[in-house]
Amino acid sequence: MDLPEDLSRSGAAAAAKRKVEEDANSGPATKRSSNSSSEGVENNITAVTDEKKSIVQTTFQTLDGFKVDSILSNSADFKRIVVEGTVGDQKAVIILDKKPFTEDILSDLFSKKSELVHTFQNDIYGSYDCVLEPKLSAVKTTIVHPATKQHIDKYRIQPFYLVQETPEIYKSVTLPYLQSSSFDIQWVHNILAHKKEADRIIFEDPDPKTGFILLPDLKWDGETINNLYLVAIVHEKGIKSLRDLTAEHIPLLQKVLTEGSEAIQKKYGLTKSQLRVYIHYQPSYYHLHIHFTALSFNAPGISTEKSHLVSTVIGNIGLSPTYYQDSTLPFTVKKGDALCEKLLENGYKF
Which CATH superfamily is domain 159-345 in? Predict the structure, then answer.
């Protein structure tokens, strides 16, 4: 989920997630300092220093040197396992996703290099484990490093609770929590300024009020159209979430919906009627962004308590310019999340 997985893809978690997958091109490569606890990963990483922020980003070549501390989650549905571990003396979160099959690998898949291990037979039905050659068995890997407690808590399996957030609860609990918390969205500003991920941009409307950048979400492999997932990040700053949208934002929403869908059809061949275009509440980071997924894709976070179709948002604001300031909005929180604790402190009953 996003916070609440979201509050914890929290702004800081999303920033770290993107940083580890960005090209390390902000400065010259430097050698990582050695110590006894990190010697095993000395030759496994390339350290790159961002001179402006004195941040060291690392690009890993292997998983050698990772010490597994615990399994945070393991999903058979999404073929994903999330592991908490350490690299040297720093915490890390490793997300491993099995990649979907694509048609272009079939000729290599159906070959003598794919070994079958027979496990079961009943009449005409045979069951096998198929051992594939390495190039066909790649696992999409996301590394959050160094990882904070907030990153680790985001992926840890905990009970979820449904919150019915009235306007009063938003003003007295949620908004003060957001204002008092530090959610780093510098990575968003880097994208908007073309400092990072410029080569991944699919489409851009540069208008400062109604413009946006459209690029693939990191959860997508960029190839499998049935799992298509892109995100539009608006240029206008100061729109934190669905709660901030009013009648003045209808031109922005309409433009993102129309131009984003047209760009996707031109590049990927999916029509507007084959796309699910929606906003999360709570979002994973507090700068307005809009999700585009293939209608055929059972994407994370498309549940009714989290996702709001942009077409419906436009219609609701058309009926009432302050619809999202006046309405009760549902969202989920995870047990132990900071917002969950704030709600409990203020008397909310789960």
Answer: HIT-like (3.30.428.10)
pTM: 0.66
Is 323 assigned to a binding site? no
Per this entry, what is the length of the chain?
A: 350
The first and second tokens of residue 121, run together, are 């037979």
* CB-based burial label for 59 (10 Å; 0-12, 13-18, 19+): middle
Express each pLDDT in 31-67 by its tens digit.
Answer: 333 343 444 444 455 554 444 444 445 788 899 889 9
Cα end-to-end span (Å), the chain: 18
SS3 80: strand
At 311 the pLDDT is: 98
Distance CA 268, CA 67 (A): 40
219 annotated ligand-binding residue: yes
In the numeric block, the tokens 């915490």 are attached to 91
The rounded distance, in Å, linking the Cα atoms of 70 and 72 is 6
Domain layout of the chain by residue ranges: 11-101+135-144, 159-345
237 known ligand binder? no
Query: CB 303: neighbour CB atoms within 10 A?
Result: 10
Q: How far is 277 from 218, CA to CA, in rounded Å?
A: 17
Residues 6+ away with beta carbon under 8 Å from 177 = 338, 339, 342
Question: Does 11-101+135-144 match 159-345 in CATH topology?
Answer: no
Architecture of domain 11-101+135-144: 2-Layer Sandwich (3.30)
Mean pLDDT of 301-311: 95
Residue 280 known to bind ligand: yes
Q: Are 92 and 58 in contact (CB under 8 A)?
A: no
Tokens of 14: 């999303």
CA 286 and chain centroid, separation: 13
| Alpha carbon distance 227, 221 (integer Å) | 8
Catalytic machinery residues: 289
- Whose CA is closest to 151, among 311, 331, 13, 322? 13
